[in-house]
Amino acid sequence: MIEFVLCLILFCIGLYCVVRKRNIIKIIIGLGIIEYAVNLFFILIGYRAQGRAPILAKDQTVINMVDPLPQALVLTAIVIGLAVTALLVAIAIRIHDKYGTFDITKIRRLRG
Length: 112
Fold this sequence. Notes:
The chain contains three helices and no strands. The longest helix is centred in the C-terminal third of the chain and has 31 residues. The radius of gyration is 20 Å and the shape is elongated. The N and C termini lie far apart (49 Å).
């Protein structure tokens, strides 16, 4: 149970970074922290103490098997999160090239 509370605390730290910070890089780091918290939560859902690998055989009965679905979802989420983070960093670099700052309060107008 304590692991779920720690995931919630990690999620809240990331949410605080996204909501309260004005630096684009800090916002991107906050989104990464949120992503890690959600991935950790999914892994904890599929975990079982003394669990076995989800490998089935014809002559075995499976007792206390670990759920493989959250693991597959997290692997997919990691790849998608990496692509989104790379895109956000590229956009942040373009904004810095155009305006000379990462501070969103100093950027007065966005024009294309």
